[in-house]
Amino acid sequence: MAERSFEKEVEQLRIGAGAEFRGEGILAVTKALLQSGVAYIGGYQGAPISHLMDVFSDADELLKELGVHFESSASEAAAAAMCAASVNYPLRGAVAWKSVVGTNVASDALSNIASGGVIGGVMVILGEDYGEGSSIMQERSHAFAMKSQIWLLDPRPNLPTIVDMVERGFELSEASHTPVMLELRVRACHLHGRFLAKDNVRPRFTVQDALENPVRDTERIVLPPANFLHEREKVEARWPAAIRFIQERQLNERFGRDGEVGIIVQGGLYNTLNRALELMGCSDSFGDAQLPIYVLNVTYPLIPEEVKAFCSGKRAVLILEEGQPEFIEHELNTILRRADLQTRIVGKEILPRAGEYTAQVVWDGVLRFLREWSPKLAVRPAPANPLEPALSKEVPQRPAGFCTGCPERPIFTALKLVQRELGEHHVSADIGCHLFSILPPFDIGNTTMGYGLGSAGASAFRRISGKRPIAVMGDGGFWHNGLSSGVGNAVFNQDDSATIVVDNGYSAATGGQDILSSAADSRSRSTKHSIERAVRGIGVRWIRTIANTYDLAAMRKSLKESLTTKEPGPKIIVARSECMLNKQRRLRPLFDAARQSGRRIVRTRFGVDAETCTGDHACIRLSGCPSLTIKPNPDPLKIDPVAHIDNSCVGCGLCGEVSHSEVLCPSFYEAKIVFNPSLWDRVSHRMRSFIVELAQRFRERREAREAY
Amino acid sequence: MERRRITIAILALGGQGGGVLTDWLVSLGEANGYFVQATSVPGVAQRTGSTVYYLEFFPEDGLNGRQPALALMPAPGDVDIVIASELMEAGRAILRGFVTPDRTRLIFSTHRVYAISEKSAPGMGVADGTKVFESALRNSKSYIAFDMDAVCARTGSAINAVMFGALAASGTLALPVQAFEVAIRACGFTVAANLAGFRAGFDSAGQETGPREATALIAPMPTTAAGRRLRDRAKALLPSPALPIALEGVRRLMDYQDANYAELYLDRLAPIVATDSAANDWALTKEVARGLAVWMSYEDAMRVAQQKIRAARINSVRHEIRAESGQIFHIAEYMHPRWQELRDALPAGLGKLLESSESLQRLAGMALGKGRKVRTSSVRWFLVLALLAAYRRKRRSTLRYLREQAQIGSWLSEVSSTAKSEYALALELARCQNVIKGYGETHERSMRKFHSLIAAQKRLRGGPDGALVLNSLRQVAIMDPDETELGRAVAAIV
Fold it and tell me: How far, in Å, CA of A381 to CA of A360, rounded?
């Protein structure tokens, strides 16, 4: 089950025409898909569209009622391939993933679907993980749209526009027999707003109908000579059809009054632009700007007639286009040259080539443009960021890290200790929570090449003698493609590397979705498929499964063995323990219920004796747990802060293991707090306390006599 | 053009409930005549990183059937309210330009959630929080700051409810308290606890104004005749600025060993006082009094046992784990004695024998076994620890004692002989004691680092900037968990 439940929210997906929908952007997209009569939905989770997948999972019942097929695809490639259903049949389909990485994975299938074209509308929803908070390489999905000729929608970030673009997008896809991408930036995905709903529409034609009446058309299959035909069809038929549709249905928008200069903006950046203009004194809250704005809700293809009409008669036009290369700016210049228009296109020459277009960046850029090209518009500059050099020296970075009690932490504690013994190794990391190992305090990991590619990322390091490379892979990445491209590849090439597969029961980093090897029973999915058996099946002989990652000694021993054993072939360590975030979400209600109902229950947590702690923080350097922190030293003679465990501790036990096996520090204690004690608890406690307190009083009286 | 919106930025850390706070604000705004837009950037930042939530309220009476184009991120100079869940997050809000003197009401918690860089530094790596207050004063229209975490601990609620309460108390939204409470109820999530946190937050807002001052050390009062005698001796021996520290040292060493041991402490301070003067503000005396007391009370098995079994300690555990009074809890200690710890506790002769015989060490290792969990709250282990604590009376005969005292002696003579010619260098040398830390291997490493500093000091004598160089070496030594950088730095001074 996913980290966040949308069971309450999905009820809103049922509302009909005229009712007002209030909620998150992702939820609005879901509603729009249902309003569009979508027949099948798939995708792969990942910020910022994980919630889209979670919403669909939670809306299972409603989808069944409407006859919509939904599946959690094994990868983005699987999701993209699913769109094959729209090639021969009038089925509307939608798939979603995190971009640009998901688009990379999906690109083979995307090229095929874009080449052969579709009958039913196909929409790819891209959660564009760009800018603040992003965890991936900063690239543009725009390039994929261009090279495969898939239309790219980038709606203004407000719910009515987003919903409208989903609905129009399907029509555009069908009118031009071309798949469409809907690009949603991070903040748009999580945007709370409102729109007027319509009724949900059952698909006119369902996947069942298609199965009953199969249709085949060789011309839609990418194989000579059809592939050459497709290329021609793309430029001669589909492109003009799309241009016509976009123009006729006015998918792009015009705002503001006419003037000697104008601004062309990607739809997704419109709100930032308008706010900057408003603060400069050139617009208001409803977009009544003092200069003309041309909003590209469709950023690919551009509509030459609209561009020419907007630019003609203007001295200069600013193009506000985030990311690089500046594809739109190039295209605008081409359109103007072909039309022999002398309007100057201003873009990256004054706007930053790299980085998110924040309010500050847009304000500064537009200000420069207007001061140079339209000085008569009175504009205000942005207030400068405060100069606080003393403060900026103090405010620390907060890199992401493993959660409190995370079962992956002890794996890297063990690896750090093994490396102290055997020396530093080359470590090929993967995508997932375990990638936090590259940050302090572990500082483990050399590269990451993509989801499920940890093992493959180590494949060049064929050992002749001496050290072996170590690879890390999560269970999510393992099933995504690590089994074949990592483990299979290592078996086939007689690799000698050691791979740790972190099996925490979920696709944890993306929000705790179930996967093949999840330990939980699932109503709608088949789970509990063992990683160990899969690995054995593909030909690995040396496998160790650690059933409890918190057992530092066992973890250490297996790691050491994997790096020193004489056994040839890849070594696989499956390190299993449930994701603590999800485990707590599962257990906490049970704990509270037991506590309330009067059933005996014990809570375990750890603590540090401030008096005994010497303030060296060696324990923290082997853990980094958020609950293991520091506090001012209560000892008036000691200066450095002491270690401290706060009440968020979940009692995972790693602190104790680390004290035992490494730092040998006696400051740590484990406390077991008994709720609703049994009779035996009370009696034995009273007996114990009686003796202990007696002894304590005796001792302390004596100590007091000898004290200062 | 009239500006009709209210903009709110929330800076929180993953897991602090910033999302729920945003939900409350949405519900609050929508129930009170506003068109509300809210956004956030979760993703990996949710895993312990810092996150910004951003909301805009626009009065519905100004809509006329249209939707306003609201911003998805704070623009410079355009944020009315900034709420930060932690001190340095308030600092971050200021640095990011969210806080401006003409507009922004800044509400923040004064407690610290330390970043990994601050926590993992082997010594003092904590950022200076007073800078946030100074900047807040300069950059905000006004600010409300108090320890919201302490309020949470008191009420058992999460920090987001306290933040919401502080916002209500600030009056910036001009809505009645009841409206806020309705919003909490509407979201229906642990309502009782959240309402308690909300009210506590509301009541606590405005009670603190600035950073808390560090309290000066007050000399402990003697409670026994021996204590009074030692106090009088210390008073005669030491200048008054150094007295509180020295008396704390006396108290500590009487507790650690006995009155004679505290006498030894004062004996050892005497030559240091002789080299010091009021012109130097008695800095060396104070520093040696501090470091010497800490070193003389080095942590051995007997000391640890003594600390673990005290009633006061059991009570502080109760407080720490937030067990209610009368609630049953069990404590287990993590102890891992090796042959080295056994050697330290043995009488010197036996200790040396063990040290010289590998087979004895193996035997001892087997007897001691792996690390064990010692249940202090059980009668059996309590008595074992009590016996061990009582064994401290024999401490003077142990090998560790002899070795520690010898090292203390040579450090002190080094300090006092240096002080005569190079006071500043001697002061730095005295401070080097703070490098010694930890248990087991960590302690052995720290001891090696200490000795490299002593050796370096000898070479620095008579040269230019000796004190400065030793100071920087000491910083390196503290911040360098393994000794590589220190070795490089020491080599570089030759």
Answer: 10
